[in-house]
Design brief:
The structure is a homodimer. The first copy, chain A, is α/β, with parallel strands linked by helices. Chain A has one domain: Aldolase class I (TIM Barrel). Chain A is built from ten helices and eight strands. In chain A, strands 1-2-3-4-5-6-7-8 form an eight-stranded parallel β-barrel, surrounded by five helices. In chain A, β7, α8 and β8 form a beta-alpha-beta unit. In chain A, α4 packs parallel to α5 and α6 runs parallel beside α7. The two termini of chain A are 25 Å apart. The mean pLDDT of chain A is 92. At the A-B interface, α2, α4, α5 and α6 of A face α2, α4, α5 and α6 of B.
């Protein structure tokens, strides 16, 4: 599968049995899985170990607690074998630092913009500062909306060395190709894959679309 | 126990067995328990049902997701018998509305200020707007720092009919009496109770302190 390393599949299901079945089918064809609180509510943190057998696991627990609680949650998730973890930098530098410092070799992704309309009120106002704070805390990557190309582009310019994970692709309206052209390093795709009758087939269909971007860019790259 | 209805004990432990044991001991002497992601990581959402046998349970899951995920988590927690749920309004009105609308009879508490220094950077700037948004979405209460009396007082003035839950009491430096005088309707106390050799005794000790405020205020109340 070409360019399979660009797709992060969000598994926002509560049912661990169904999730494991999908993970097993598609694990070789994703860059990583992204799992959040729904799945943990439906099982417990052992599900992270289970899924890590099939692909890297990014725990999108969007941490926004006081530093001590952020630290406790991060350590637990690290011990369960996650590859990455997601935090909200708006809780401040001490809260994000607590995540980065207790993450060990886990990658920390920081949410600097979101995919839903309501995020315009507060988060959009602070995106520039949130990016700067994320970089200064040592975040590995940032999350930004793949369905809001202008915001995504702004984040890409601000992100520096940090990787850009684009959310909101598929059901929320984001187009994979536009998001990649707009600055995404990875695409987070959820419902359109896990709700598909055949998740692997849908994943391969999206990958075929993405591959076209690679072909477009090849002549330039060879110059 | 006088005034026992003012204390919310935060049970931020991972171990469900230890947590259940403490809950059973102190349940009759608290207004409610507050539990968060650490406990759910260590067990699963069934722990909410367990604890609800001893007292009301407020799930401090500080929701800050897109509306669809906020909704899914809220429904799951409601189905497990929680009395209250906590959300971050900074994710915007649609995200908070999703919590309130799917909460049913569960009370929604909205975080408008926090107890750690880092919260000054972004959240403090927006506290007034976050309070207004919380009220307009129909939140039952707000959470504010009991260890930052000036911010607590500001929130109390902005809260209107919404109840004020004060965090940061005890280990984080907040004084129960000052927080009640400063505008708190309820006090959230965590580590100083659950880490005590005898949690019930520590709870009763704090309650005795609080009762003094009741006595001070009695003459005024009888005027």
């Amino acid at each position: 599968m070409a360019d399979n390393n660009k797709i992060v599949v969000a598994l926002d299901l509560f049912d661990p049995i169904k999730t494991r079945a999908i993970a097993q089918k598609i694990g070789e064809d994703v860059f990583a899985f992204k799992v959040g609180w729904p799945l943990i509510l439906g099982s417990n943190s052992d599900i992270i170990n289970d899924l890590a057998r099939y692909a890297k696991v990014i725990c999108d627990v969007n941490l926004a607690n006081i530093p001590d609680i952020n630290r406790a949650i991060t350590e637990n998730i690290r011990e369960h074998g996650a590859w990455g973890i997601v935090a909200h930098p708006f809780a401040g530098k001490d809260a994000l630092d607590a995540v980065v410092k207790s993450a060990g070799s886990m990658k920390v992704f920081s949410i600097v913009a979101m995919s839903h309309p309501g995020s315009a009120t507060f988060i959009d106002r602070d995106t520039e500062e949130l990016c700067a704070l994320s970089a200064s805390s040592g975040a590995y990557g940032v999350m930004a909306p793949g369905n809001r190309i202008d915001v995504l582009g702004k984040v890409k310019r601000l992100a520096g060395q940090m990787k850009v994970l684009a959310t909101g692709i598929g059901t929320q309206g984001g187009d994979p190709l536009l998001a990649l052209r707009g600055g995404a390093d990875y695409l987070v795709i959820g419902r359109s894959v896990y709700n598909a009758r055949d998740p692997l087939r849908e994943l391969k269909r999206i990958d075929a679309v993405i591959s076209r971007l690679g072909e477009e860019q090849r002549p330039e790259a060879s110059v």
